[in-house]
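BUG: 3D viewer hangs when loading the predicted structure for this chain

Environment: internal workstation, default settings.
Expected: structure renders.
Actual: progress bar stalls at 90%.

Input used:
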Amino acid sequence: MQQKYRSILLTRPIEAARRLKSDLLSINNKLDILISPLIEIQYTTYDFIQRDYSAYIFTSENAINSLMSNKVSLGEIDVFCVGQQTQRLAIKAGYNVLGTYPRVELLVRDLSELKFKDKLFYFRGDHVSCDLKPTLGNKGIEIEEMIVYNQQACSLSKEAFNLLASKPCLISLFSARTAKLFSKEVATLSSKAHLIYCMSENIKKEVALDWDCKVAPIGINAANMADICRL
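Structure tokens produced before the viewer hung:
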């Protein structure tokens, strides 16, 4: 019989985790959801000189928030986004969204298939699940980049360890960074029939645990997480 999950551990940065928790509870208010961030977002300070780029890439909402916090105004630029929240923030900032993807690998695929040859600019964090500069460079796509936020490691809370020790949990991992940190944090724990739910194959590869682990088919969102809990 398929395992049922009524407990969910969210490891995203606090604001994103709170938003996902709210979305999950709006679908199923009987879920037991615990937030224990494994990274804290810290915006860097920088000067950005805007040049003639054909489009910009944002694979995280944190990059747009960093630009806003540094009062960097880019005007009506063309952008590619990964994630619906990234897209929403891009539209709010006045950007023209050319495409939005649930995973960065799909963005790479589309740019490659389109034989996109114009120069791109990528605003990113200090840790990424897919390093776009060499990945796209190997496909003949020129890209410049700037780190505009850092991801400071956090420890799992005592409540998170208690939950993992007592109940089967659905654990969502949105980045390679959190996959590595989570694996290290819980290395001595039994799986307890937990399911690790990863945003992409690149993230799954960083899970160094002998636990049940799967990749979300179209990226992680509240709807597909709630579906797993209904099984």
